[in-house]
């Protein structure tokens, strides 16, 4: 993604979010409107593969336990905050049927943010506390450039606790989806070959 644009003063509202251009991802955090362009290929690839790898066994029950609703980029409303994670999941015991709505007010059980160089700060310093305040139980931060997956669980006083950390091409069982193995290598695009010194790009 490119650098998120911010609208700080006066405090942004949902009307500002609705007025944002359709090609941008618009979010409200603490009265600030953030708009970001659609993600570049490493980000989009990681989110797409992860959605398929988790959605098939946990949403559709193919080779896994089922029991979840997994969605791409749902709009979440937590009071005045409006967040759009890359992926989110609700246990069916909390949300038996997926409602026909434009946005969700019931906090997910799990959210996943795929980081890019320009949005990592927003995801870590603004959105992560907002997810905790809303009571989201699990947060994944996936960094396709560093090739890392960080798993956080909500602890006492609504503070994130690092539950697991994985990197490289490991095959992992990551909470709360430890019933299946995830191949991290499938999330990463091949590294661009280094150009010989002096060769023009």
From TrEMBL:
The record ties this protein, via InterPro entries, to: Nuclease_put_TT1808, Restrct_endonuc-II-like, Uma2
- Where's the Putative restriction endonuclease domain? 26-184
Supply the Pfam families for this chain.
Answer: Uma2
By its UniProt entry, which Gene3D superfamilies does this protein fall under? Answer: tt1808, chain A
Protein's recorded name: Putative restriction endonuclease domain-containing protein
Q: Which organism is it from?
A: Chondromyces crocatus
